Amino acid sequence: MNSPSLLARFANRFDAPDLRVAPTSTLTFAGIRIEVLAGLTVALALVPEAVAFAFVAGVGPLVGLYAAFIVGLVTALIGGRPGMISGATGALAVVMVSLVAQFPEGVGVQYLFLTVVLMGIIQIFVGIMRWGKFIRLVPHPVMLGFVNGLAIVIGKSQIGFFKTADGSWMASSQLILVLALVALTMAVIWGVPKLTNAIPAPLAGIAITAAVVIGFGLPVPKVGDLASISGGLPQFALPDVPLNWETLQIIAPYALILAAIGLIESLLTLNLVGEITGQRGGASQECIAQGAANTVTGFFGGMGGCAMIGQSMINVNSGGRTRIAGVAAALFLLLFILVASPLIEQIPLAALVGVMFMVVIGTFAWNSLKILFRVPKIDAMVIILVTIVTVMTDLAIAVVVGVIVSALAYAWQNATRIYSKAHTTPEGAKVYAVQGPLFFGSATGFIEMFDIQNDPALVIVDFADSRVADQSALQAIEAVAAKYQSAGKSIQLRHLTRDCHRLLTKAGHLMVDSDDDPDYAVAANYGVRTGILGGH
């Protein structure tokens, strides 16, 4: 038995029940109850995450909680995928801290608010331009690496809850107790779906573990030990910073980076949730929703955010399928801040860590460990590379690296596929039937195919099984034509497709002597003008 199969079977024992008890909710009383309970579960899991990420960004806990509420509410109402959950995230927090740290205490957060507003405006612009569709260019191996890396990042982020305020590990007796409570929560989440679907398993896990801790008075860290979550309604205020060119120079680079990271994580989460719920589309709408949410939260004292894959998985696995769950999660979170903070602060962190560990097990693509030995080596390398880069840096860099490596690998594979089949016509002309695409990667191979010295006076290049793709291809055609011209010979192009014809015509390469040029989708012969693109 190989280890990937063993790990995959181990994972299936945990995450399969959650996925099976996540039916599509309907607007019946039972369906709404499932949605509301799923929202409550998500809200409970959002609290420590929002507080922790606020600390990472160097701002107060309410700045993170307000962001989770506002971003979560706006995206739930107008986002591109019902069932997705958004809020303050660690991927954005690690960028924000660099901005906040540049200024004295209390000043940096004001610059952050204005940065979040600009970030939102950029995201709205991306949505209006419908650039979200380019997420389709992300290959499946990159997606696998993304979810694997993110699962590891979520798991790593929970380790801090096993340490004390000074960064050292808990005392062994307390650590054992906390681990036991984490295990209890995970066991409840695993077992409840086998007994009933009346309550989301993560909510049951939190409730039972909290009851045990409170009932027995166990000395373990609670939500309130992180920080107080009590507060009032978020208030509208303009960021207290100078609105001038110097300020724009400071915040613009951060806004661009945050907008890119937020959209990449959101759109990849949109695709992942779509695969589970069977939904499609919505990329541009999600970009606009994320932008609107961040623009609003910047004016209401929030640190901004994006889609959260962990909380989205909790919601989906708890039965959340409509916008009701996301709205409920945001409203419950506001309720916690306004009136229920004393109760929420009594929830043991171990219960929430247990929920997130189950999310890790359910998120990690265990099947990818098996297919590493079955897919092409380059795809296996991309999965591993994206996973590592996600863990070591951040999601945006990992996805960009994965797409670049996949694109280069694809280009190289296609570059090696170009060749030609040559034959001579009864009239004495030599025909090169080009096979494979002609683009920057195959341009050199194309040039090397021709035997200019020994070819007859007329050479025909047949593109019936090829396509002229880019400027490098045009340059290659001109280079070959120039060589034949220097040798006192002529070259003609045949069987150009319509898009190839337009490309060559725009460049000024095609030259037809007769007035009755036939449909160029058939077999027209074209001469080639040289000296148009130059020699470099």
From TrEMBL:
Q: Which UniProt keywords apply?
A: Membrane, Transmembrane, Transmembrane helix
Please list the residue ranges annotated as the STAS domain: 419-508
Identify the GO cellular component terms for this protein.
Answer: membrane
Membrane spanning stretches: 21-46, 52-78, 85-103, 109-129, 141-159, 171-192, 199-218, 251-273, 324-344, 350-369, 381-412
Identification of the protein by name: Sulfate permease, SulP family
What PROSITE patterns does the entry give?
STAS
Q: Which InterPro entries match?
A: Membrane-Transporter-like (IPR052706), SLC26A/SulP_dom (IPR011547), STAS_dom (IPR002645), STAS_dom_sf (IPR036513)
- Membrane topology label: Multi-pass membrane protein
Q: Which PANTHER family match?
A: SULFATE TRANSPORTER YBAR-RELATED (PTHR43310:SF1)
The protein's location, in the record's own words, is:
Membrane
Species source reads Jannaschia faecimaris
Tagged with keyword Coiled coil = no
